[in-house]
Structures are given as C-alpha cells and as structure tokens.
Amino acid sequence: MTTDVLYSYKKTRKQRSWLFINMGVACLLYIAGLYGYEYYTNTRVTEDFSVIYVSAFSVASLILFSIAWWLRRYPATYEAIITSQRFIVRYPNSSQWSFDVSVADIKRFEHRNTLSHAGRGIARTGVLLIDGSFHEICMNYGNNIKDMYNAVKSVKSDVTFPTKVNQKVQGLINKDYDD
Questions:
Q1: Burial of 19 by CB count in 10 Å (0-12 exposed, 13-18 middle, 19+ buried)?
Q2: Quick one: pLDDT band at residue 103, thresholds 50, 70, 90?
Q3: 91 and 147 together in one domain
C-alpha cells in the first residue's frame, strides 16, 4: 500500500463496546434518578409507572451490557483507508460492507433509499462508481462520511455528494436510482 494516506479510521469492537456500556450505565442512572426523586421529594409515583419504568430500563441496560459483552468477546477491527489511488473499507466479517475501489472510479458519494407500497426503506450511504455499482459505507463504527468525501474530493475534484436522497420507487410508478 502506498504511504500517501489521506484518511484513516480504525476502531475495534472493544473500543465500540464503551458506547453500549455508557448507555447501559445511563439506564441504571435513570432508575436511580426515579428512586432519588421519590426519596428527596417525599412523593411516590404510581405503582404501575414505577414497575414499567424500572422494568423497561432494566431490560434495556441488560441488552446493552449483553451487546458490549459480545463486542468484547468476539474481537475484530473496522478500518477505512483512503489514499490518492484507493478507497478501502474492511468491515469485520462482512463482504457486503467491505470493498477496495480505485478513487479514479468513484463518480459520487450519495444517500440512497427505496419507496414502495410498504413505505420508505432503510437509508444507505455510500459511493457510486462510474460503472454504476454502489458500495455502501456502514456507519456502525462511528466513522465520518463527510471526512471520507473530503479526502476523496482532495484527489478527484469532480466527485460530488448531493444532499438530495437518490430514491428508487417501486409500485404504481417504477423508478430506478438516478445515474
């Protein structure tokens, strides 16, 4: 690999687990906040509210701590590197979200979505190549798509990143993604 790195982002699952640990602790603090409120104001909330509130935040914290445990138990690393020649994303255990493309082949960055009789689909952000293929950039590890775009734009000035969502419509009207 060349040494002219324009953008580099690396995050391990262990590093990402801290987000879930912090959210789990916040759930426990909400529970403590309810008991603190009752103690300091000498006011009791209704029994139904208390049971639902404590149960919901307890379950949420359990799920969040379980996710953090899994992230630590199965280590892996997300990595995104942009050089003047290549745009490489290595997503742990996923060929769908991993790619290695030439910067010269990138037409634009874009947001995509689908619209059908069932409503809007899940929005995706990624790069559209000159040959029409689209590579999604998954945001699960906290990477910054705008920084990636700026790095590519510094090498290939004709690359764009429209704010308008490129939308595919299925149903009475059929429209594919714009080129």
A1: middle
A2: very high
A3: yes
Q: Are strands 166-169 and 106-116 parallel, antiparallel or unpaired?
A: parallel
Residues 87, 127: contact at Cβ < 8 Å? Answer: yes
Of 127, 106, 122, 137, nearest to 167 (Cα)?
122
Statement to judge: residues 51 and 84 lie in one domain: no
What's the chain's average pLDDT?
92
Residue 160's SS3 state is strand
If one counts the domains in the chain, the total is 2
Which of 17, 170, 150, 164 minimizes the C-alpha distance to 87? 150
Measure the CA–CA gap between 82 and 86, rounded to whole angstroms. Answer: 6
Q: What is the mean pLDDT of residues 27-51?
A: 95
- Tell me whether strands 124-129 and 106-116 are parallel, antiparallel or unpaired: antiparallel
Distance CA 135, CA 109 (A): 10
Phi and psi for 139 in degrees, rounded to 5?
-100, 15
Q: Tokens 């953090």 identify what position? A: 68
**Same domain (yes/no): 93, 148:** yes
Domain of residue 26, residue span: 13-73
Of 104, 86, 108, the C-alpha closest to 7 is 86
